[in-house]
Amino acid sequence: MTVGMTSSPSVPPAPAARAVLGLGLAALGRPGYINLGHAQDLTDARDPLALRDRAHAVLDAAWDAGVRHFDAARSYGRAEVFLAGWLTGRGLTRADVTVSSKWGYAYTAAWRTQADRHEVKEHSADHLERQWPQSRAVLGRWLSLYLTHSVTPDSGVLDDPHLLARLAAMRAQGVTPGLSLSGPQQAEVLQRALTLRVEGEPVFGAVQATFNLHERAAAGPLLAARAAGWRVYVKEGVANGRLTARAPAVPPPLARVAQRHGVTPDAVALAYVLAQPFADVVLSGAATVAHLQSNLTARDVTLTAADLDELAALQEPGAGYWATRAALPWN
């Protein structure tokens, strides 16, 4: 197999319908996470069975509200297992839902909220060969997208021809390979990934990136990804709780816009992301039914030009945003 590069697409994307909300299970598959206030969410649901029931309740509420996209990862504790159990109990098929999962991190916290390391990153071909069969065994009946988790310039993924060929081969099994992004160089990583080919065909067909009112650096490459026909998922639309009522101090522009629309700050933050022309799916990271319902009201919020002008003040320098995120405690 040959691995090559082409120029990044420059054709502007066609006008998009408004994105839809999906549900990510990062805060539902394990007892610890970095979202603000997560400890209060799970005071009654930290053992595996209780957390499974909590996850299923949130999944039920999401399904009943029309959510059809669900995202997990090998490193989200038992998220894949919880999701598979719920899909089986509902009698849902691959035609009913779009399920994505990710490889590249191993969960290492042993079901503890406080641990030296909650997850360990490894983007080797050997690790893919371990984790891909595990995800297939649990979610194979439903899995549509399989992403390499948190690709950064130092991951080595984009420089490994054998690994890229292995990822590209997933298409023959009906699964679209993709990558999720993290860190201040999201844009550069995505720009390069867009050029990669195996035997003349694109390696990847999906991306999951952080984009929110504070962090907007990847907008251009995300537009290019959508123009190239990739599925574009947005994660961390509320910046791990910093753009919600749980923030130590809700940013005044966000508070004012939320008050004008009669909604919570998270709804405004997610409405902003839902309106982006590159977005297909915006993931809610809710760990409770109440927070999910609050997130879902974003679907009914249409921000005005005046709102957008006011919210523009919330953008942060990339390095500062990611430094703040890295300092968030697991709880």
UniProtKB/TrEMBL annotation:
InterPro entries, per database record: AKR2_Oxidoreductase, NAD(P)_OxRdtase_dom_sf, NADP_OxRdtase_dom
Domain of life: Bacteria
CDD domains to which the protein is assigned, alphabetical: AKR_unchar (cd19098)
Domain NADP-dependent oxidoreductase: residue ranges: 53-315
Pfam families per the UniProt record, alphabetical: Aldo_ket_red
PANTHER family: D-THREO-ALDOSE 1-DEHYDROGENASE (PTHR43312), NADP-DEPENDENT OXIDOREDUCTASE DOMAIN-CONTAINING PROTEIN (PTHR43312:SF1)
Protein name: Oxidoreductase
